[in-house]
Each structure stands twice: as structure tokens, then as C-alpha cells.
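User: I want to check something. If I give you two sequences, will you return the structure for each one separately, not as a complex?

Assistant: Yes, each is folded on its own. Here is the first sequence with its structure:
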Amino acid sequence: MATKLPKVPVVIVGMGWVGGIIAAELTKAGIPVVGLERGKSRNTQDYYHVHDELRYAARYELMQDLSKETVTFRNTMKMRALPMRTYGSFLLGDGIGGAGVHWNGQYYRFLPYDFEIYSKTVERYGKKKIPENMTLRDWGITYDQLEPYFVKYEQMAGISGEKEVPPTVGKMSVPYPTAPMKKSPGMKLFEEAAKKLGYHPYVIPSANLSEVYKNPDGVERAPCQYCGYCERFGCEYGAKADPVVTVLPVAKQTGKLDLRTHSNVTQIIHNGKKATGVTYIHTPTGEEYTQPADVVILAGYVFTNVRLLLLSKLGEPYDPKTDKGSVGRNYAYQVNGASTSAFYEDREFNLAMGAGALGSSIDDFNGDNFDHSDLKFLHGANIRFTQTGLRPIQYQPVPAGTPKWGSEFKKATIHNTNRVLSVTGQGASMPNRYHFLDLDPEYKDALGLPLIRMTFDFEDQDRELVKFIAQKTKDIADQMGATKTEIHDSIKQYNIVPYQSTHNTGGTIMGSDPKTSVVNNYLQMWDAENVFICGASNFPHNSGYNPTSTVGALAYRTAEGIQKYLDKGGSLV
């Protein structure tokens, strides 16, 4: 029988970026918070002298243990879903800081178009432009409404970026607080080529600090060393903004945060109208606890947030057959696959050095920055050249036609290691009626609870997008002075391998209609007013960008909403 603990004002499930931001804002306001994290504790000392590619990048030291809990996957409802046994398509973080520890730090605000995508698409092209099963939704909030919260995140994290932004992105009321990252030779080639073609290149805004920075909370951090160990690694310098070195110390210093690790939440307790708390298991001992609370905040990864609602029978599960219900609706991914490799015979680059967010990009073919009238897809992609640090075990660049193993492969790999630059497109993922999340009827986790099941595949929209964007990457690469270029312009059926992107979105989407969304624009649940759900699971679609900036901005706004709710109660909209 579960041990019942004393009631608290707020309990947060998951202590990554979302949980850390909300905990910091609430505790600074004097509100006691219990933070429940199912993984272990973590600090920067854990990363000292651990540039170990095998341990972290290949064997996934920072990731969730798939033997205890995983995701099952199928392309269509007619298929039997099977568990993801080893990591491939995406990586699920574990422990304090979550995926905020192993991210690259690439920081992009979503476009104004994204937040009103349905309205703006219909306004420009008419309803017939939207395919029958594409479930586009406005977000219930505009870019201008969210803009001040982007600023809050940027000031906290010390985002490094150019003072003037191009006309292809949303306007900024306050410049980035630190200067942009250094420009590598490859970045300069990309920018020169893009400008020749009439595009608007800019240095990628970065959560890898370009200089010493002290944020408004008094947290001071050192600048990036360009070591190339960002993605899949924690930063031993603290130069990469993550929850462990920014918001969590602030929350702890207030004395108002009770942070409990190895605490795996299994259920939201509720009466059908309001939550009364959560149940969790302390995994080292197997002991079960009930934590009563006035407010319950789900701040986990996409799959965690959706799964907890479904396990708790809170909210109406989405049914793709009837297109009714909301929990699990509008799962979206990221559409990669459009790229061009530029091979140089007479020039070498130092590609081992870099940073997770070191690069330049353009948005001339992102969102609705270009005319889609005669195109067979909506939205677009951010096109970029990045120098994130190419490590020796997982990086083997060879031209097409090279044997996959043997002496010729080794010779080509050694020759090309510092002679290949890649121009890539990261495409938006539009929602589809038959892309969703639900509970798997067959497979269970180590506790005997059903796993989350993902039903997803690439559609014609995605294939057309990749074909179009790939040609744009080749146009740029052809201007970069390479000996030859090779285009990659097609994607086929989605598979859980190989690695593609950790940018999963949807399942608890926000909106203005309770029938087709889970939360309002404060991320307050329609079906339980004292439950707030925050994270990329709120996105009704995924943009051509990395999601973290928008997740962070929404978290700041949600923290503000929670304080209003604690003061007055009721619906916030």
C-alpha cells in the first residue's frame, strides 16, 4: 500500500528544462515545490574529462534504459507495433536535466506563421490547399503574445546570436544577450554562397556561450571551448545552457524546492474534474508513495506526458477512426533527409573542432516565407551548415559508390574526414489524422504498465518537401567551391532506425477548442483545471526548427499562469 505524504502546493513530474524553469519561477515567488525525477541526480563534475565517444555517443550513457521502458512503433494501424530495443531514430534523456543535458544548444524561435498556421494558410491559399487528413491547428496563441517569454528564456540561458535578425524570422523586442559564435571557414563559405543566391544567412543562435555571461538570476558561466562534445554529452565547462547549471541551482537556493530523484510517477490521482496528487515509486527500494498537491504539473518528455494521462484515464483518448478525443492527437516528428555533401580535393577543414550550435542557416524556404501555390506541400525547412564537432567513431564520410567496408572504405574515410562539408535541411512535420500516440495493448514496462505506442509514417507532403529543399541545398553547395557535390533528395518509409532527430512533438496539443486540444494557451488542462502539461507535447505540429526555444518560452508563460491559478483558481482563459 502506498505511503501518503503531506500535501504540498505544487508537484512537478520531470525535472528537465520545463520542470527546472517552472520550479525556479515558482520558488522565487515563495511557493513550495516538490520535483519528481525518475532518473538520478547530476552536476557538472560528472562530465569532467569524459570526452568518451564510445560511452556517451555510441552506448548512450545519458539515455533512458530501454530494457525497463521503451516505445513501440508501427507505420499504420494495420501493423503490429514492436518495441524499440536499441536506440536509433531518437534519444530519450534520463536523469536531472533530461534531454536538456545532451542537446546541441541550437536555438531557434518558431516563426509567427507556426502559431497561426491554419488561419494563415487558409488566408493565403484557401482551404483546398490543406490535404484531407492533415489536421492543421492554430495554437491558440500568437508569436507576439509569446515573444516576451522567448526573451526571458534567452536572458536566462545567455543565448548567443547576431544583434540584427533577418526579415525571414520573427521580430525581436530585445537582442540576444551575448555575441554570436565564431565563424568557421565552412560557415563563411556557406554564407557567401547563400548571399550570392539572394538569400539571408545568419549565424545560428546558440545556447553554447560565446563569452562569459551572468544572467538576471546571478548565475555566471564560462564561454564555449569549441571542443565538439555537445550532442549526447554534458558540458564540463557549463558553457552549454542546461537546467543543471541555470534554473535548478536557482530553485534550490530558495530552499523551497524538494527535489526527489529515482521517483518514477505512475499515475495522476484525480476525481474526474481535478487532480489531487500523484503516485510514484522510489525505484531503488520499490516503495510506493502518494504525493497530494494543489497543482500537478506534467513536465516530462512527449511520450511521458501522454502516457501518464492515458494511464491515469485523464482526458479523452484520441480515436483516429472517428477523429474524436484529444490525448495522443497530432503526433509529429521532424522531416530530415534533404542534404548535399560538398567534397573538396584541394582543401581541408578542422571539422573535429566545433560546438553543438556552431553554424549558419537560412529561412528563405522555411514556414511560408516563399510561395507554395504551385507546390505539393506546406511549410518548409531551415537550411543550414553546422560544425558540431565530427568525432572519429561515428563519422565516416565517403562518396557514393564507395564499398561499405574493407581497405577501400578505410582509405576513403581517412582521405575525406576533413574534406566534406554538408548543407542540410531540417523540415517541418505536419500533423496527420493517422499519426498518433496511444497505449500498446501488448507490451509493458518493467513495472507491468503498458508502453506508449507511436503510429507514424512519412506522407507525400514530406517526400515533396524533401525533394524541393534538397535542390536548394545543392544550389548553395554548388556555390561553395567544392570539387564535386552529391545530393540526397528522397525519403521512403519511416523507420525507427537510424538516428534522425530527437524532436518528437504532439500528443497533448494546445489550442482554443477543448474538443480537439488538451490544454489552453496557459497549458492548463481543459478537463482538470489544476493540471498543467508543458513541453513539446503541446505542439500541434513541428516546425523546421529545433523545439527547445519554444518549449522554454511556453514554460515561462505556464509558470506565470500557475501563479495566477494558485491566487484565484478557475480557468485562465
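And separately, the second sequence with its own structure:
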Amino acid sequence: MTTWRRPVTLIGLALVPVAVLGVFFVLPVSGMVARGFWPDGDFAPGEVLDVLTRPRTGRVVWFTVWSAGVATLLAVAVGLPAAYVLHRLDFPLRRAVRAALLVPFVLPTVVVGVAFRQLLGEAGPLGFLGLDGTPVAILAGLVFFNAAVVIRAVGASWESMDARPAEAAAALGASPRQVFLTVTLPSLRPAIVSAASVVFLFCATSFGVVLTLGGTQYSSVETEIYLLTTDLLDLPGAAALSIVQLVAVVVLLAIAGRLRASADPSIVRVPARPRRPRRSDLGQLVATGLLLVFVAAPLVTLLVGSLQVGDAWSLDNYRALTTTGSQQALLVPVTEALATSLRTAVDATWMSLSLGLLVALAVTRRWRSRAERRIRGLLDGFFMLPLGVSAATLGFGFLITLDSPPLDLRDSPLLVPLAQALVALPLVVRTLVPVLDGIDDRQRQAAASLGAGPLRAVMTVDLPVLWKPLVAASGFAFAASLGEFGATAFLARDDHPTLPVVIFRLIGHPGAMNYGMALAASVVLAVTTAVVMAAVERLRVPSLGAI
């Protein structure tokens, strides 16, 4: 009986989140895929296989792999110097710079798309380069988002790296370059490869950036699924691409998980304290400064554009947010959409936090048998799957599977928060898991030996360590919900849209007033998410990049 008690406890902890993901993730996605394989009620896999031989499918897959690969290399190249500067050097405003470089990761994709269009468009400061609507603009947007992942993942590893081997190499006469190549880089390699795999995953599944900056001229797998489901109603094509995407993501998650597990937590490390910059650090400092300019340029351009009407400075774009735009572009004012976004984000946050805490408790239990280890690995991978499924697939799957009793949720106010909670769930889990993993189980055993029950042990051992990561996870979930666009574009009703959906509709309607409102609404949304992430950064919880 004792042999099976721990695996049964593990399954019991995971039962609720597994059931929720089964109903609100597996069911919609499998329903979407089933519509592709059984288009008329009869099994017809040939139609799906034919999709993979289309010339356009080949171009879409190639563009996805090419753009994600190049963007990953660029993100790593610009992120490594910044990781060193922000985690190994001590200088004034270091925390402010770190927060500024973290904000892009959680900015709504629609906001970033509008910001880069404002920067690179014909009337923008860099319009003379002719990059608007080109693959270069898409790459810039992807790097803008994902450099933060490299900075946080590699920076956390750099910060905790044992300083003694590098000091010994330097004492033996090795130059700084030799120390980096022979000591530092091998130690950082697992973190770099893990971060690169996560960045590639995010780039390959990017939706809003490619859609707003590339339109239909440059389609990734993600935007092609959206096009096939909404415009062409080609469900076999969408199913084929969804399967390809899901398989690729499972492989990437397995690689990232193996790399995370390769670190030996039993090694005693003596990390070096941050030091003052030296002349030899000038190159890294300049690179970090250029990255900060790269991050600030589109956001500053967005802010300036929102404050201009014609050639004059004005707040009219912000005043217009209480209207429905010119030519009735919207059904509700932007301010009402913002209120809807905030309410939805609150609901999505408590949902994802409740599920994520149960998942984290389940996957961090100390395993003592091969069965427990296998169950934990399967659960860990299962709860990361929402990262790899197209938001369009998930949203459309909600519509076609949750449309009849007892799961007729098409008119439920919880439909959009549920979808957004699934999107935010991996962020919550990866924020909490490292913290729970780091708690010494002997402390719980000591509390139990002193007569503390399970709840008392959690209150006295786990909660003091966990409360900051819980608050940080709430911030990540809230920010992710505010900016979620892919699934929400399917599910949000016209009379209750969220702010990202409204912004996308405004830039799709002609008229200077509508475009000015889109700029102002983008600034409001960006400031809201930036404030949330600035508060999270003050908690100093290193989570991004551990996905």
C-alpha cells in the first residue's frame, strides 16, 4: 500500500488541472483536428496529407523555420551581452534598465506591431529605409520580444555561476577571452541552448507580430492556420498545419526539459558578486545600450504618434477613446473595451494561478521510484502543451466543441478568460516550479515530526518562500491575458471586445481618426502591462526563460 501512496497522491494533486485541460484544451484541439480528418463525417486523411504537398504550405513552413531561426540567432546575439551587463556588473539604474528590457516580452503583440509600423512606415522616422511590410520588420518584432528571454535565462545562470573556476584560470595567466571560451561559455552552454530553444518556439508560434507586420504576404504556420480557418474555412489544411506545429513543439519542449534537468543541484556554488564595470566591459556596455535604444525606439515613436493630430500636438486621440471611431468603426468605445480587458484579465489570472499552483505542487514532489518519475515527466510535458498549439486552433476549437449542452459556453462570460488562462498557464507553472523545487524537503519532514499537519507545514515552510513567486506569477498571468490576441480574436463578442481586438479593428479601418485612436489605445495598453511588469521585477523572481 505504501508503495502506491506517493504515485496516487501525485495523481490526486494533478487530477483537477488534468481534467480542466482535458475539457478546455484537449477537447477543443482534438475537435478542430477531427473536423479536418472527418470533414463530412467520414474519415478522409488524404485531404490532410494533400495539404502538406501544396506549394504554399512549403513556403509557409519554410518562412516559419527561416524567420524563427534567424530571429533566434539575433536574440541570442543581442541578449548575451545584456545578460552579462545586467547580472554580473553593478552600476546605477541597473534595475531600471533590466525592467525596461523585460517589458517587451509581455507587451501585447498588436501593440508591438502598431509600434513598428509607426516606426518603419512611410511617415515614420525610419520610413526612408523601406522596411515596412518586409521580413526585416517581422524579424525586428520577433527579436524585440524575445531578447528578454535570453537575458533572463542566461543572466540567471550567469548570476549563479561558481566564480572559483574562472578565478583559478585567471590566476594561471589566462586572458579574459580565454577564460570566457574555456570556462564561462561551457558552463553557460546548457542555459544558452535552452533559452534558444524556447525563443525558437516563441518565434515559430508568433501570431500577432507576423499578422500585423506581414499581413497575408508573409505567413507563418500560426497565421496560415488563422487564414485557413477564418477566411477559407479549409479545416483539413488547418488540421494538417496544427499537427505539424504540435509535433515540432513537443520535440522542442522535450529538448528544453532535458537541458533543464541536466543541471546538478547538489553542486555547491560560490557565485561572484556583481562588480563595477571596467574598461574591458566597454563592448558589452555599448551593446546593451544599443539594445535599449532598439527597444525604446518603436515605443517612443508610438507615444509621439499618439500625441499628434496632423502636424500639431494634441490629446484628441486619447479623448476619442470614449467614442466608437469614425464611420462607426467599433460597436463600443475603447474605454469600455479596456474595462472588459481588465475584468477578463482578473478572471484569467485567478484561473491560471489556481491551476498552476496545483500543477507546480504535483510536478515538484520528490520522486522515489521510476513510476513516480515517469508520471511527473508526463505531467510536466502535458501542462506545457498549450505553448505549442496555435491560438487560432484553440479559439476555433472552442467555438466548434463547446457549443452544445452540457458544455454550451458560446455566450458564457468565462469563455475568453478560460482561453487566456490556458495561454498563461505555462508562465505560471514555470514561475512556481523552480521555487518549489528549491525547498528542502527535510524542512517539511521536520515540521511533520514536530506535530505539524500538512496544512500547517505548508503555511510554515512553503508559504514564506512561495508568496513572492505567487505574486509574480499573478503579474505574468495578468499581463499575458491583457495582451492575448489569437484565441480572443475568435471568441470575443463584437459588443464585448478586448482592447487588443479593438486595436486590430481600428488599424483595419481607414481614417486618420481611427489610426490615431489605435495609437492611443496601444499606449494605454502598453503602459498598463509595463506597470504590472515593473512591479513584478521588484520582486526579483527569475522566471522567464525557464519555460
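Because they were folded independently, the notes below concern the second chain alone. Residues 60-266+278-306 form a domain with the MetI-like fold fold (CATH 1.10.3720.10). The chain has two domains: 1-43+310-547, 60-266+278-306.
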